[in-house]
Amino acid sequence: MTQHIIDAHVHIWDRSRGETFIAEKQFPSLTGKAFLPADLAPVLAETGAESAVLVHGPATVEHALHCLDLCRAHEMFRAVVGWVDLRDPACQAQLARQSVDPGFRGVRFTPLLDAAPEDYLRSVAARGACAALQDSGALIEVLAPPPLFGAVAALARAHPKLPVVVAHFGLPDTDPGRFDGWHRAMAGLAELDNIHVKVSGLPLTGDPAQDDPMTQRHVAAMIRLFGAERLLYASNWPVATALASPGYWRHRLDTALAELDIPERDRQALYHDTAARLY
């Protein structure tokens, strides 16, 4: 049984800061709710996680700096993934301001929030940020669906020593008929050794009869393509609570790994070792 677990993707939503939380548009049930460190602690205990990676929520530099403050104040956070505005000429200065903090581990690119997502990923600013992060030994995360994987691969290929972490299974479509297309797109990313994938964010229904086959299908594909050493368990708390509890997702994942007869060393890589190495 896996003894050490890192939750590689959580957010903090503090309503007192007056910030905008984009996920509310997709999940209206989260509207108006606050999710603070005190709320996360029992979630980590329920899922057995010893620590978590705090990823920016609102796409602002101010929020990223707030996350770094939280990381210093709460031992549960092992690292922070911040954010910079690639459309701002001050992008490099924003990166420099965050990177001096010991809790900083990298930034997340958010192309889906941009009017021209592919141009965003192929921009001079994106390449410049990647170069700076590679030089400092940091990483990037990318929240992008399959149509943008070509641009993600181009960044990874141009910066071979930069870990690139693709969020949430690469945002697979909810239509099972599109699984093969998603699988082909992920296979292209898997050819690049510096690309990793967070095992989180599947469109769960709350019904194990539907969710277990979906989880097993996607996890089997990820292990076959990437190997457990390039996969990271994550809860995506609190966004995922709009669909199911973090404990429910942990159980679905455990069930899939058992059904697939995944050896303990690979489970330990997925649940802990990959995240410990990257973050």
* Individual helix count: 11
Q: Could you give a short account of the major beta sheet?
A: 8 strands, parallel
Radius of gyration over C-alpha positions, nearest whole angstrom? 17 Å
Helical amount: 40-55%
User: Which structural class matches the secondary elements?
Assistant: alpha/beta
Q: Could you tell me the number of beta strands?
A: 8
Q: Which percent band covers the strand fraction?
A: 5-15%
Distance between the termini: 23 Å
> Which term fits the overall shape?
globular
- What is the residue-mean pLDDT, rounded to a whole number? 95
Question: What does this protein structure show overall?
Answer:
The protein is of the alpha/beta class and 279 residues long. It starts with 5 loop residues before the first strand and ends with a helix. Strands 1-2-3-4-5-6-7-8 form an 8-stranded parallel β-sheet. It has helices spanning 23-26, 37-47, 61-73, 91-99, 117-121, 124-136, 149-158, 179-190, 208-226, 246-259, 264-278, and strands at residues 6-10, 51-55, 77-82, 104-109, 139-142, 164-166, 195-199, 231-233. The model has no long low-confidence stretch (mean pLDDT 95). 46% of the residues are buried.
Q: Top keywords for this entry?
A:
8 strands; 11 helices; 45% helix; 279 residues; alpha/beta; single chain; 8-stranded parallel beta sheet
Concise structural overview:
The chain contains eleven helices and eight strands. With 279 residues, it is an alpha/beta fold.
Please give the structural blueprint:
Blueprint: E1 6-10, H1 23-26, H2 37-47, E2 51-55, H3 61-73, E3 77-82, H4 91-99, E4 104-109, H5 117-121, H6 124-136, E5 139-142, H7 149-158, E6 164-166, H8 179-190, E7 195-199, H9 208-226, E8 231-233, H10 246-259, H11 264-278
Parallel strand pairs: 1-2, 2-3, 3-4, 4-5, 5-6, 6-7, 7-8
Helix pairs in contact: 7-8, 8-9, 9-10
